[in-house]
Specification:
Chain A contains ten helices and no strands. Chain A is mainly α. Classes of the chains: A mainly alpha (259), B alpha/beta (175).
Chain lengths: 259, 175
């Protein structure tokens, strides 16, 4: 059994892991669709989006591990597989169980919209490696957003059943939106150093783009929830432990195992 | 000395033009614009590669194939480095590469719009099955085509079908 690593939780490391872990955990969730999507084309789409997200996560985790510094650097695999739950900083939104297809495409739209806006800003990061990762990822996120948004429109503006399911998903997922845009010391440090924007700055453009998708789908945007989820501070929902168990099992049991 | 160095780099480029992409074996890694630079160092050649997609599983296979080809050609020890910036763009696919893709049955990507190339803010483009851009069928050249699947057999392609000749075909996505 491989022991956990101790993460050097500097603000810059946390800022990058919020993004990298969000990509990583959503990719893990999307992997659950493999062989289960309603049509073959969407099965391929889920896996392809997951693949892009894993690639983005790899870049960010590798870089975050180097930034840990003080002789405590870790590589991408150690960060992906050997952290304790509270050292993951993904949004709670992406750890929620797979749900039905309406839930999946709506969540993908919400996350892709956020990531697209984030990558656009990060392409001008003061950190050249982050800027390079973002320059590539923004093109991918744009495609994910278009594809997933297209499905939200088709389902929202589809049959009674598809509309009912999309409305239900919207109600569930919207509870986790405030977490996206709450700023804290990690954000302020990133904003001050030029590493990346405070996520609160992305709120208005995100809402505007989501409004555009929901309008086209004939869905009403819910009011902001009072509930506050805290995944990006390392305090997760009850679902996170199960994801990590599945994701980490192989590397914990067979340290350094490769395909 | 200078001419010798140049010839070794030139020889490496000639070899690299024969290394095919593992997932689209109709084109070489040079046709795709993945090989950015070949640099001569005292301890061997450095091949600079830019991956197409963040998660492209072929990236490691390409590194391996490139290094193996250089060594097999007797050009000595070589190492590969990945250069992420500037990000790979389908605009880097050569005209020769585009012709080869088309002959292979894959519709080549259109050139990027200035907005897409500059990565500036772009409106969300929601589109249905009928392609937003007219993608010409690589077999019969008809533009009466529709998109079947936004994602294809590899990260870089989408699946289309031609309404004129009824044949399905792959499209190399412009990014």
């Amino acid at each position: 059994m491989q022991a956990s690593i101790e993460l050097n939780r500097t603000p810059a490391v946390q800022y990058l892991l919020r993004i990298g872990d969000t990509c990583l955990v959503l990719a893990q969730r999307l992997g659950e669709w493999c062989g289960h999507a309603p049509v073959l084309e969407e099965d391929i789409a889920m896996a392809n989006i997951a693949l892009d997200l894993v690639g983005q996560a790899r870049g960010l985790l590798t870089h975050a591990g180097k930034l840990e510094g003080e002789g405590r650097e870790h590589d991408e695999d150690q960060l992906a597989y050997l952290r304790e739950e509270r050292d993951y900083f993904n949004l709670t939104l992406v750890e929620l169980p797979r749900g039905d297809f309406a839930f999946a495409v709506l969540r993908n739209t919400m996350v892709a919209t956020l990531l697209k806006l984030l990558w656009q800003r990060l392409a001008a990061s003061s950190d050249a490696e982050v800027a390079a990762i973002a320059g590539k990822a923004v093109k991918e996120a744009r495609y994910h957003q278009q594809h997933s948004g297209d499905w939200v429109v088709r389902l929202g503006d589809g049959t009674d059943e598809s509309r009912r399911r999309t409305e239900k998903a919207l109600k569930q997922l919207w509870l986790y939106v405030p977490e996206l845009f709450e700023s804290d010391a990690v954000d302020e440090a990133a904003s001050a150093s030029g590493l990346g924007p405070a996520w609160s700055e992305l709120r208005e453009p995100w809402l505007a783009e989501m409004q555009q998708v929901l309008d086209a789908a004939g869905l009403a945007m819910p009011a902001e929830a009072a509930f506050r989820s805290t995944g990006k501070h390392g305090v997760h929902s009850e679902h996170m432990g199960y994801i990590l168990t599945e994701m980490q099992h192989l590397q914990r049991s067979f340290p350094g195992g490769v395909w | 000395m200078t001419s010798m160095v140049a010839s070794r780099v030139d020889a490496a480029w000639a070899v690299l033009h024969t290394v095919l992409d593992p997932e689209v074996p109709a084109v070489s890694v040079c046709d795709l614009g993945i090989v950015r630079e070949v640099i001569e160092h005292d301890d061997g050649l450095e091949i600079v590669l830019t991956p197409t997609y963040s998660g492209c599983p072929a990236t490691e296979a390409i590194e391996h194939d490139v290094l193996a080809a250089i060594e097999q050609a007797g050009l000595g020890h070589a190492r590969a480095t990945l250069r992420r910036a500037p990000a790979w763009s389908s605009d880097w696919i050569s005209d020769e590469g585009r012709a080869k893709l088309k002959a292979y049955g894959i519709a080549p990507p259109a050139h990027l719009t200035p907005e897409a190339a500059a990565n500036t803010a772009m409106p969300i483009k929601l589109f249905g099955r009928i392609a937003g851009e007219r993608i010409a069928c690589p077999r019969c050249a008809s533009e009466r085509t529709e998109r079947l699947s936004a994602f294809g057999s590899t990260a870089c392609k989408a699946l289309y079908r031609c309404m004129a000749c009824r044949e399905p075909f792959e499209h190399f996505k412009p990014i």
